[in-house]
Structure formats: C-alpha cells, structure tokens
Amino acid sequence: MRLLLRLLTAVCLLLALTAAGVIGHALWIARAPLPEPAGVIIVLGGHMTGDNHLGRETIGRVHAGVRLYDAGLAPRIHFTGGSPDDGRPGAGEQMRALAIAEGVPPAAATAESLSESTLQNALFSRAVLGAEADGPVILVSDGFHLARAWLTFRWAGYGPVALAAASPFGDQSTAARARRVGRETLAWWFNLARIGAWETLDLVAGPDPERVDLLR
C-alpha cells in the first residue's frame, strides 16, 4: 500500500511538472520575437467543429501563418490536419483554401488532410514537402502545443525547427484553456509511449508503412 501511494504521488508530481512546463512554454513562446526566415511555414491543424468546419483556434493558426508568409519569412506555406469525419474535407485542405482566400498564391500553398495526430502531421507532411523538410522550417500552432510539436517534428527527421505561436492557449474560455493544458499534459506522455513503441517495433520487426496507424 505504501509503495502504491508513493507511485501515485510520483505520477501526480510528474504530471504537475509537465503541466507547469506546458503553461510556462506557452506564455514564453507567445512573447518571443519572429523567427528567422525559413524554407517553409507549416501550420498545424487544431479543433474542428461538429459540422466539419475549422474551429476558431484553427482559423487563428491560419491567420498567424499567413501573417508570417506576408512578412516574407518563407516562400511556401503548408497546412496539415485531417477530418474527424471520413470522406469530408480535412483541416489541411480547408486551411489552405482559407489562406488562398486571404491572398496566398495557390502555387505557394500545399496541404495534407489525412493526419489524425501531431505525429502523423509530421510524417505525412514530410512526404509532401520532400527535401524542404530538411531545411529550416517554421511551425505554427498555439503556444501550449508547440513544445510537443517541436519534439515530434525533430523526431520525424526535420531540419532546424523554429516556432511561432498564434496565441498562448487558443481563443477560448478559461475552462476550455484549462482542459487544453490538461489534455496536452497527458498527450506528452502518450506520444512518448507511442514513439517508444514505434521505435521498438522498427528495431525488432523492421519498418512497416502500415504501422503508421499506431500514431493516430
């Protein structure tokens, strides 16, 4: 019983420290200066509404990415994110359409709309970007998400990765922001576990493209 209590205490402490890190980084990165110019801006999809439209948080990320593009920080902008409803336009495709409506030339905007997680954002976007993923890239998301996104894209083999926050926690209520911090805290450890499983299976059984479903 005492061992179990100590274990639970250690887990609670670890989660509390993770949450503090998420909050601290979100507040810091939201105040950081603009990143250096890069080869491509990558905008990560976020919340989708129940009728499969972009949520306010995701629209805010598009606006932030377009501002960076208009400021000349990259010649290309890429959008990544799937749909909770199979067969309907994914976040990536919808974000690209919004960016084009805001003045980004169609030839300068790409998208992938199959990914269902940040891990898949990184892997599926790499297939679209090709060699551009090896050079400097700028990731755009909300601040609470960016530290985990940076780690994920570096794990996926991207070159130097700079960060730009659309907002610290998204344009939502205080309760919604708290839920996002809680979810992000758990997502850190969930993602690390999935990466560990992926790497272990690659080592034991060899690469398998079908294994990408583990990373949803």
CATH superfamily: HUPs
The largest sheet, given as strand count, sense and whether it forms a barrel, is: 5 strands, parallel
- Order of H and E elements: HEHEHEHEHEH
Supply the number of helical segments: 6
Helix proportion: 40-55%
Low-pLDDT windows of residues: none
Average pLDDT for all residues: 92
The end-to-end span amounts to: 36 Å
From the 3D structure, determine the CATH topology: Rossmann fold
Strand order of the largest sheet: 3-2-1-4-5
Précis, in short:
The protein is 52% helix and 11% strand. By secondary structure, it is an alpha/beta fold.
Provide an overview of this structure.
The protein has 216 residues and is of the alpha/beta class. The chain has a single domain, classed as Rossmann fold, CATH 3.40.50. It is 52% helix and 11% strand. It is built from 6 helices and 5 strands. It has a 5-stranded parallel β-sheet, sandwiched between helices. Helix 5 links the parallel strand 4 (137-141) and strand 5 (161-165). The longest helix has 32 residues, at 174-205. The radius of gyration is 18 Å and the shape is globular. The termini are far apart.
Topology of this protein?
Elements: H1 2-30, E1 40-44, H2 56-70, E2 77-80, H3 91-101, E3 109-112, H4 118-129, E4 137-141, H5 143-155, E5 161-165, H6 174-205
Parallel strand pairs: 1-2, 1-4, 2-3, 4-5
